[in-house]
Amino acid sequence: MTRKQLIFLCLKFNDVYEDYPFNKRQSDILWTTIRHKENKKIFALIFERESQLYINVKCEPQYIEEIRELKKDVFPGFHMNKSHWNTVRVNGDVSKEELAQMIKHSYSLTSIRSGRRCLAEKL
């Protein structure tokens, strides 16, 4: 999956938009954030580091460690609250379907109409 495809996948959700709030001239990492229009909350942060594509997604704290143990390409959130966010290496051991579920879950957790569901059961 390419960066462009990943952004497109995130933009399929209702009432969201792409943003670049953290990018400065001296920054060596290009951050793409995907936010809710209703509350401006970020539910996905996409970046590349050392030629690898990553995405930060929110997760419920009670499932975060379990997911990290199940998947070697899921780490504590890079530049995020590590109790609530995971970083996923795209094109690693997390399938496209699992990644789509993680993004959907993050979208739900950050929405005003938050409908929390157990993500760990789906992996």
UniProtKB/TrEMBL annotation:
Keywords: DNA-binding. The keyword Glycoprotein does not apply. InterPro entries: YjbR (IPR007351), YjbR-like_sf (IPR038056), YjbR/MT2646/Rv2570-like (IPR058532). Pfam families: YjbR. One of its GO terms (molecular function) is DNA binding. It comes from the Bacteria. This is Predicted DNA-binding protein, MmcQ/YjbR family. The lineage of its organism: Bacteria, Bacillati, Bacillota, Negativicutes, Selenomonadales.
